[in-house]
Amino acid sequence: MTTEMICAGFGGQGVLTIGRFLAQAGMKEGKNVSWLPSYGPEMRGGTANVSTVISDGPIASPIVSYPDVLVALNQPSLDKFGPMVRKGGVIIYNTNMCPRGCNRDDVQLIPVPMNDIANEIGSSIVLNMLAIGIIIGKTGLVKYETIEDELKSFLQEKNPDLLDKNLQAIKKGIEIGKQYTSVK
Fold it and tell me: Its domain of life (predicted)?
């Protein structure tokens, strides 16, 4: 099984981190992975996206032209990448930053007020971990425990105070993603 994904948003929203953590978790679970970031020179505040592929078999190319899953954290990203998602794919989008939403009826839409939920958890910067949780809950792409281990080793050095909030965000995202597993 191969899952091709694009995560996109403004620089500083953590979209590259979403792809990186999923790729690292996939690799730890013995899967083949690729992670290809793309961002403008302005990065923070500009646009950024990452193509991530996780597969049980060989990966022919890291370039994702028609993703199975799109995570769009803002309207420009949804407008740009939404039309590229494969028929039957999944579009997860942040309703707080995507006021026009998405009008496709041949994909599964998962609209989530990610900014609101991240703020309820206590930090706007856990929004990307919420997105990871939604992906895991919806697709089962990687195990929660693997992401938790990756996050613990990453944050123990960088910012241990954020660990609990990030784990809360992932768990909340998993709950949300699971709500959409039986819906087509």
Answer: Bacteria
